[in-house]
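Quick illustration for those who missed Monday's session on complexes.
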Amino acid sequence: MAHPWIADRALAFDSSGIRKVFELAAKMRDPINLSIGQPDFDVPEQARAAAMSAVQSRKNAYSITQGIAPLRERLQKQVEGELGHADRQLFITSGTSGGLVLTMMTLVNPGDEVLIFDPYFVAYEPLIKMVGGVPVVVDTAPDLRIDVDKVRKMLTPRTKVILLNSPTNPTGKVATEAEVEGLARLAAERNIALVSDEIYRLFCYDAPFVSPARFNPHTIVIDGFSKSHGMTGWRVGWIHGPSAVIEQMLKMQQFTFVCAPQPLQWGALTALDTDMSPQIAAYRGKRDLIYDGLREHYQVAKPGGAFYIFPRIPSGPAAPWRNAAEFVEQAIERELLIIPGHIFSRHADHFRISYAADERTLTRGIAVLQELAKVAGG
Ligand code: PMP
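Prediction with 4'-deoxy-4'-aminopyridoxal-5'-phosphate bound:
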């Protein structure tokens, strides 16, 4: 029985299964940690210095809700250069998560349906339920393709939002230009809000990133510095979209998050001067290392982006596990931390590896995974 004070919305979902793995990790001496959804590189040095200097020069008060002007203007210019929409407004949020919360609060009435693609980012369902929305799950198994005709058939008069995330957490899949364009045009045709979570935009290894906002000027784009600049703890992101929607979101931010931390906004501004392409190139190398280490032992799609890979659990005749949760238990016994796929999916036969780790960790992880595939036999 829940405590009598607790509101229904808090009981509508469980706490993240990922956190449970983090807690286990804290107890191990030298775990092979491939569970963490954040880069293993740090904030660029100049950006750290700029944040410290902002603190020292007493830029410690609230910023305006929109965010400090130099950062907002710089990002606005970047977005205008890429998209060139006449009616596109941008502001700074408290991380991408903050942007997602504001989006849900602003767009979703109780009972409204929000389409998400399975496998999905772990926070999407709780965020939808928090505002009384109904998550509608579009299965992309087995090939992870977005089938626009299938999406069309799942639309109802209550469909309010389609939430896209590409490159995708947890699969690393990058939607093709045709998929993105098809979805963007469908949303426009049916007057449904298309929300694009582009936090992994920089992490595209095989083809340039394509935003649905290119094809649908009403797209709401959520982005942030957490992954691109290794600053998950700084809580700085941004959001842009049609001004009528953005104005309402700003109002929501004013009374909730208020603003992103001011000194860290100054740091983020400086971070934009750093070329992150060496880090991205290194991550392409990590992608190749993990994929090449697993491809002969696991059923696994080659990820084109982000820093995740989502193999199927081995199902040979001697496999002592029945699902991903049991497989992950076996991995954890060998000090390898990975995340069972049921946390991101209605299916329970895959697991997520984050390869945002150093080469030694990756090599050790691959060795354990190869050993587990042998245990399964077949
Ligand atoms: N969206 C996706 C798809 C993510 O993977 C994450 C972080 N794991 C977020 C949003 C949240 O990022 P932030 O740190 O900017 O809140």
